[in-house]
């Protein structure tokens, strides 16, 4: 039987001392696989700026739809 893991080993997000706050990045850079609206809205909710390139199929769909294609991601609130 193995010894129980310490709290620090169980949660990799915790800091060494419980009184220290967790540190979040100011800006997140991700690849095209993390382009979903849920991920981007979660980053916004946490107050993190982010740069996620747009997938080619999303660009093509918006270009194909013309004026009805929606707002480009530069205007993403």
Residue windows where pLDDT falls under 50 for at least 5 positions: 7-11
How many individual β-strands?
A: 2
Secondary-structure element order, N to C: HEHEH
- CA-atom Rg in angstroms: 19 Å
What is the distance, rounded to the nearest whole angstrom, between the alpha carbons of the first and last residues? 52 Å
Q: How would you explain this protein's 3D organization?
A:
- This protein has helices at 7-10, 37-45, 56-65, and strands at 27-29, 49-51.
- By secondary structure, the chain is of the alpha+beta class.
- The chain has a two-stranded parallel sheet with strand order 1-2.
- Helix 2 links the parallel strand 1 and strand 2.
- The longest helix is centred in the last third of the chain and has 10 residues, at 56-65.
Summary keywords:
30% helix; 2 strands; elongated; two-stranded parallel sheet; 3 helices; alpha+beta; 77 residues
Briefly characterize the structure:
With 77 residues, the chain is an alpha+beta fold. The chain has helices spanning 7-10, 37-45, 56-65, and strands spanning 27-29, 49-51. It starts with 6 loop residues before the first helix and ends in a 12-residue tail after the last helix.
């Amino acid at each position: 039987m193995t010894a129980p893991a310490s709290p620090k080993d169980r949660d990799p997000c915790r800091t060494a001392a419980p009184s220290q706050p967790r540190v979040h990045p100011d800006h997140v850079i991700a690849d095209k696989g993390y382009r979903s609206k849920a991920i981007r809205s979660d980053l916004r909710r946490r107050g993190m700026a982010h740069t996620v390139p747009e997938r080619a199929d999303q660009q093509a769909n918006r270009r194909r739809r013309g004026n009805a294609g929606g707002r480009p991601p530069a205007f993403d609130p």
